[in-house]
Design brief:
heterodimer; A: alpha+beta; SH3 type barrels; 5-stranded antiparallel beta sheet; 3 helices; B: Rossmann fold; 7-stranded mixed beta sheet; two-stranded antiparallel sheet; 8% strand
C-alpha cells in the first residue's frame, strides 16, 4: 500500500483487482491446463476484453462480462487471470 | 481429441426382422441455447426418460411425427461447450455422439442448436460437431431476440461457410420450425470438411468461429437491458441475499400451506371413492383386499401428489427464468464454508422434492469429489416423501397452537425444525467428508449467468406431467406392491379358515422379530414393521400402518392418528420423527447412487452412515424427550 502512494494509482494486475464496471485485457491464465481450457472455452482467451460486471453479495464469486456472456468466477480463480498492463497494449478484440 | 471422422463406424444397419426402428437424431448445443425448448416443441407429449444400460445416463428421448407416417427418434443431449468432456454430463453426450455408447440408439444426424445472440462464441462448438462427419443442421435459436436487440446474421452465407444447412428459428415462439422438420424428413450428406481448425486448440477454434461469424456478416445484439436491470436487484449486495431468503421461504411455504386445499381435495376423493367401492363389493376377502390393502395403502400416498407437483413447479419456474444460476452464485459462499461449491446448491434444493432426481442433477458438478459429497448428503434434505410421515405423527401428537403470530403454529414450527435438523446434519456431514476422505483442492466455481427469460407455460406443464407420471408409476408399482404384501402378511396364515388375530399373523411375527431392535427408540412392533416397509419408499410406512390398523378390528374404529397414539409414546413420536429426518430415504435412492457413482462402495457407506445416524439420533431423542417429559 505504501508503494501505491509513491508510484501513483496502481493498475489492476489480475481480474480480481479489476473494480466493478471497469475493463481490462486478459494476458494469461495461471491455472492448471484443464481449468484454463474450460475458461478459454467460455471466452477467457488471452487478448480478450473482460469487464468486471458485478460482485456477488459478501465475498462470494464475481461476475465478468466476456465475449458477450456473463460468467461468474470465484475470487480465488479471478486472482489467477492476469491482465495486461494498459501501457503495453491497447485494448484489442479477441484473437 | 479422440473423435475424428474416420474412426466413426458407419451407422449400424437395422436388423432384417420386425418393423424398422425409427432413425435417431441428436440435439446438441451449449448450455442455455434452448435445446430442450426445441425438443419439447418437436416432440410434445411423445417423449420419455430413457436409460442407457450400464451407465449413468437418463436422457430425454422423444418421437417426432413427420408427414407420411415418418417417425424420428429425437435424443436431447446435455449441454456442451466442447467435445472435451469435463463433467459426467458432457462425457455422456460425447459418447452418444461418437457412437462409443453401447446399446443406445446411435444418432444418424445432428441438430446443432446455437443461441444466435451469442453466435460468435457458440460457433466454437460447431467445429468439433461438424468434424463428427454426421449430417448436421445448424439451428440458430432465439432469432427473434437477436433481431429485436439489433443483431443480424446472414444465414445463407453462414451455411456456405460451414458447409451445412442453417435454420433461423425461435423455439420459444415456435417460429421457423418447418425448416427443422424438413431436415428431419430428409437430411442430406455429411458436411464437407474443409478449413476446420485444430480441434484441441481453443484459441484457434475461437478465432475460426469469429472469422466464420464475420463472413456471415454476424452482428452481435445489444446486451439485454432487462437482464442487467434484474441482476442489479437479484445480485444486489444486500437485497440479493434478502430476496434469496424470501425465495427459499416461499418454496417451503408453498409446500406447507398453499398445497393444503389441493391435498384435502385429493384426500376426500380417495376416501369417498374407497367407501363407494367398499359398498359395491360384497363383504368378502376381495373387499378387504381392495379397500384395506390397495385403497388405504396407495391412497395414503397419492394424497401427496399436489405437494410434490407444487414443489416441482416452483423449481421449474426458478430454473426456466434463469434465477437458479443467480441463487447458486449467492449460495456459493455458504457452500464454500463446508468445502462445497455453489453448483451443489441446485441439487440440494431439488432434493427437497425427491433425492433421486437431485442425485441426477449433481452431474453438472465437474469435481468428482464435490459431486460425491453432494450425493452423499442429498438424502438428508427433507424430501416430500417424508412429509406424509411428519404430518401424520405431528398431527397425532402435537396440538396446534399459534406460536409466532397467526402465521406460524406449533405444527409448522415442528416441521421446520425437522428441515433444520436435516440441514445441520447435511452440512456437518459435508464438512466431515470434505476434510477427510473427500478432501480436494478448492474447485473453481465457473458458472455462466443465462439471460433472464419468461418461463413458458408449455415447458412447465410438460415438466409437471413428467413428474406426475414418475410419481403415479411409483404409487402404482412399488407402493402398491408393498401395500399388497403387507395386507397378505396381515391376513396369513389362516386360522381355521379365517383371518388370524393380528398378533398371530405373519406381520405380527415379523413385528416381534423387529421389536427388540426398535424398542430402545420407543417404537412398538407395528412401527417396526412400518420402518421395514419404508425402505421401499419413505411414505410406505403410512400406508403400512393404514393397512395394519385397518386389519385390526379394534383399531379400525379409531382413526389412524388415534391408533398411532397406541403405537407410540410421546417421546417415541419424537424419536420417530428424528429417525425419518436422518435415515436413508429409500432403496430407490440407494440404486440411483450406485448407478451414478458406478460403485457399491458409496451407496453402502451412505446407507450404513445414515442408518447409524438415524438410530443414534432417534435413541438420543427418545431419551431426552423422556427426561423432559
Amino acid at each position: 500500500m505504501q508503494l501505491d502512494v509513491i508510484n501513483g494509482p496502481r493498475h489492476p494486475e489480475t481480474l480480481l483487482e479489476l473494480p466493478d464496471g471497469q475493463r481490462g485485457v486478459l494476458d494469461r491464465l495461471e491455472l492448471p491446463a484443464a481449468e484454463a481450457r474450460r475458461l478459454m472455452e467460455l471466452g477467457f482467451l488471452p487478448g480478450s476484453v473482460v469487464v468486471a460486471a458485478r460482485s456477488a453479495p459478501g465475498s462470494g464469486p464475481r461476475v465478468f462480462r466476456v465475449d458477450g456472456a456473463e460468467i461468474a468466477l470465484r475470487r480465488a480463480t479471478a486472482a489467477r487471470l492476469i491482465l495486461r498492463s494498459p501501457s503495453a497494449h491497447p485494448a484489442e478484440s479477441p484473437a | 481429441m479422440k473423435a475424428c471422422p474416420d474412426c466413426n463406424s458407419p451407422a449400424p444397419g437395422r436388423g432384417g426382422g420386425g418393423p424398422p426402428a425409427p432413425r435417431a437424431v441428436a440435439i446438441v448445443g451449449p448450455p442455455n441455447s434452448g435445446k430442450s425448448t426445441l425438443f419439447n416443441r418437436l416432440t410434445g407429449l411423445r417423449q420419455k426418460v430413457a436409460n442407457y444400460p450400464g451407465v449413468t445416463v437418463e436422457q430425454h428421448v422423444g418421437r417426432v411425427r413427420l408427414a407420411q407416417g415418418h417417425e424420428i427418434l429425437l435424443i436431447d443431449l446435455p449441454g456442451l461447450y466442447s467435445l472435451t468432456p469435463r463433467s459426467e454430463d458432457e462425457q455422456v453426450a460425447r459418447d452418444i455422439l461418437t457412437g462409443e455408447m453401447q446399446d443406445g440408439p446411435r444418432p444418424e444426424a445432428v441438430l446443432l442448436v446455437l443461441d444466435s445472440t451469442h453466435l460468435a462464441r457458440h460457433l466454437t462448438l460447431a467445429a468439433p460437431i461438424l468434424a463428427l462427419g454426421l449430417p448436421c443442421l445448424v439451428v440458430l435459436n432465439m432469432a427473434d431476440e437477436l433481431l429485436s436487440r439489433g443483431g443480424a446474421v446472414d444465414a445463407e452465407a453462414l451455411s456456405r461457410e460451414l458447409g451445412a444447412p442453417v435454420a433461423l428459428i425461435s423455439a420459444a415462439q415456435g417460429e421457423g420450425l418447418e425448416a427443422v422438420r424438413d431436415f428431419l424428413r430428409r437430411w442430406g450428406t455429411a458436411p464437407a470438411l474443409t478449413g476446420l481448425p485444430v480441434l484441441y486448440d481453443v484459441p484457434r477454434c475461437r478465432a475460426w468461429a469469429t472469422r466464420v461469424g464475420q463472413r456471415a456478416s454476424y452482428q452481435a445484439p445489444r446486451p439485454s437491458a432487462w437482464t442487467r436491470r434484474l441482476d442489479a436487484v437479484f445480485l444486489h449486495p444486500r437485497w440479493g441475499v434478502v430476496i434469496f431468503g424470501l425465495v427459499v421461504v416461499a418454496v417451503f411455504q408453498a409446500i406447507f400451506s398453499w398445497a393444503r386445499p389441493l391435498t384435502d381435495a385429493v384426500q376426500w376423493a380417495i376416501g369417498a371413492s374407497g367407501a363407494r367401492i367398499g359398498a359395491l363389493l360384497p363383504d368378502s376377502v376381495l373387499r378387504s383386499l381392495v379397500v384395506e390393502g390397495v385403497w388405504s395403502g396407495v391412497g395414503s400416498v397419492l394424497v401427496f401428489l399436489p405437494q410434490i407437483l407444487l414443489l416441482f413447479a416452483f423449481l421449474g419456474i426458478l430454473e426456466d427464468s434463469g434465477y437458479l444460476a443467480r441463487a447458486a452464485l449467492i449460495a456459493d459462499r455458504t457452500m464454500a464454508r463446508v468445502g462445497l461449491q455453489g453448483k451443489s446448491f441446485i441439487p440440494l434444493l431439488s432434493a427437497h422434492a425427491c433425492a433421486a432426481p437431485a442425485i441426477l442433477a449433481t452431474r453438472t458438478i465437474e469435481n468428482r469429489r464435490d459431486r460425491i459429497a453432494t450425493i452423499l448428503i442429498a438424502p438428508l434434505m427433507t424430501c416430500t416423501a417424508r412429509l406424509p410421515v411428519y404430518t401424520l405423527v405431528i398431527a397425532a401428537f402435537l396440538p396446534e397452537r399459534p406460536l409466532l403470530g397467526p402465521l406460524v403454529g406449533t405444527r409448522a414450527a415442528a416441521i421446520l425444525g425437522l428441515y433444520l435438523l436435516g440441514f445441520v446434519a447435511a452440512f456437518a456431514t459435508a464438512r466431515l467428508l470434505k476434510s477427510s476422505i473427500l478432501r480436494s483442492d478448492p474447485t473453481p466455481f465457473v458458472l455462466e449467468m443465462p439471460p433472464y427469460r419468461r418461463p413458458t407455460f408449455r415447458s412447465l406443464a410438460l415438466r409437471l406431467l413428467d413428474r406426475s407420471k414418475v410419481f403415479l408409476r411409483r404409487a402404482g408399482t412399488v407402493i402398491l406392491a408393498v401395500a399388497l404384501v403387507m395386507w397378505l402378511l396381515a391376513h396369513l396364515p389362516l386360522a381355521e379358515g379365517r383371518q388370524p388375530p393380528l398378533e398371530h399373523s405373519f406381520l405380527g411375527q415379523l413385528g416381534r422379530l423387529v421389536e427388540p431392535v426398535v424398542r430402545p427408540l420407543g417404537f412398538n412392533w407395528a412401527i417396526g414393521v412400518g420402518l421395514v416397509s419404508s425402505l421401499a419408499a419413505r411414505e410406505a410406512i403410512v400406508g403400512t400402518l393404514g393397512t395394519i390398523h385397518a386389519s385390526d378390528p379394534q383399531a379400525r374404529a379409531l382413526g389412524l392418528q388415534e391408533a398411532l397414539r397406541k403405537d407410540l409414546t410421546p417421546s417415541g413420536a419424537v424419536a420417530l420423527l428424528v429417525f425419518f429426518a436422518l435415515a436413508m430415504p429409500c432403496l430407490t435412492t440407494v440404486g440411483v447412487v450406485a448407478r451414478e457413482t458406478r460403485s457399491w462402495k458409496w451407496p453402502l457407506l451412505q446407507f450404513a452412515y445414515l442408518s447409524a445416524l438415524a438410530y443414534g439420533g432417534a435413541f438420543l431423542a427418545n431419551r431426552l424427550a423422556g427426561l423432559l417429559g
